[in-house]
Amino acid sequence: MDKKYYTARMLRKNSTIQERRLWNLLKNRQFHNLRFKRQVPIGNYIVDFLCLEKHLVIEIDGGQHNEPENIEYDKCRTQFLESNGYKVIRFWNNDIFKNIDGVMEEISKHIN
């Protein structure tokens, strides 16, 4: 098995609380009848959530994404994904806990 697919499987099994909370709202076509997948390999990256129908990638970021080297990595990652036709939206972990309605509203804006 390809290493990135094994890694994606492990990430699904060990998802964060924030990822599980958002997944519970996206799974089984509950959200606008769209199919979302989680921890999906795209190129050399693994994205948190993907809706192929809308070419939408959703990322949930923790505090480590605020460190200079990770900011640059995320920028390159986003450029790669966007150059391959995906729209990337990002939310902080705190957004998932403190403003899940706002998160869902923002996702809705990107699928319509």
Question: In a nutshell, what does this entry contain?
Answer:
Helices cover 49% and strands 22% of the residues.
Account of the protein in words:
- The chain is 49% helix and 22% strand.
- By secondary structure, the protein is of the alpha+beta class.
- It has a domain at 10-16 and 32-99: VSR Endonuclease (Endonuclease, Chain A), CATH 3.40.960.10.
- The protein has a 4-stranded mixed beta sheet, sandwiched between helices.
- It starts with a helix and ends with a helix.
- The mean pLDDT is 88.
Write the layout of secondary structure elements.
Elements: H1 3-13, H2 17-26, E1 37-42, E2 45-51, E3 56-61, H3 68-83, E4 87-92, H4 93-98, H5 100-111
Parallel strand pairs: 3-4
Antiparallel strand pairs: 1-2, 2-3
* CATH structural architecture of the domain at 10-16 and 32-99: 3-Layer(aba) Sandwich
Straight-line N-to-C gap: 36 Å
The main sheet comes to:
4 strands, mixed
The largest sheet has its strands arranged as 1-2-3-4
Number of helices: 5
Q: For the CA atoms, what is the radius of gyration?
A: 14 Å
State the CATH superfamily name of the domain at 10-16 and 32-99.
VSR Endonuclease
| Secondary structure category | alpha+beta
SS elements, strand count: 4
Helix and strand pattern: HHEEEHEHH
Morphology call? globular
Low-confidence stretches: none
The helix content is 40-55%
**Overall mean pLDDT:** 88
